[in-house]
Amino acid sequence: MVFWAMAVLAPVSLTVTNGLLLGLLLAGMAFFASPANTAVSTYQLLTTPDRLRGRLSGITGLVSGVSAALGPLAGGLTMEWAGPRWTIVAAAAGTAVIAVVATLSPTLRGFNPPQGEDGPAPKPAGTPPGGRCRSSSGPWDDEGGRRTGCPLLHAPRR
Q: Which residue among 6, 17, 28, 41 is least enclosed by CB atoms within 10 Å?
């Protein structure tokens, strides 16, 4: 969705001559990026084993940082070589290619909430029937009669 919005809205910017309308158009394109980045980053972290999360974060930060440095350089050189109109057309075409690949990719089409190899994550030990604590105001008593608080809120980390 994000790539398609960018691929469609970028060429439209070539027809807009009013600065305010161009700003609104660019804001519309930027609006889609943040929720998509948040969703992808969250999905990556949820599906990555704990022992590999540091590596994932490092590689993601490296790629993001290099892209942030090289993107403006590449855009500026392309604008010098081909001019602003063709640079925008080339960027829109590149984004459209990425949109087609993302749309046809079975991996990206199956963007579902993460589940373990054995299905959904098991409920924490001591979870009451129905998966809810009997009262939000009082502590939950486990099988031994200890007052431990709601096991759903105080589940041990794996």
A: 17
Q: Is 70 exposed, middle or buried (0-12, 13-18, 19+ CB in 10 A)?
A: exposed
Q: Are 22 and 35 in contact (CB under 8 A)?
A: no
pLDDT mean for each 10 residues of the chain (158 residues): 82 88 87 82 85 91 93 93 90 89 81 57 50 47 48 48
Write out the DSSP string of 68-105: HHHHHHHHHHHHHHH-HHHHHHHHHHHHHHHHHHHHH-
Structure-block tokens of residue 117: 């190899």
Per DSSP, the three-state class of 30 is helix
Dihedral of alpha carbons 57, 10, 95, 6, sign: positive
From residue 4, give the alpha-carbon distance in Å to each of 10, 33, 42, 53, 105. 10, 12, 21, 30, 14
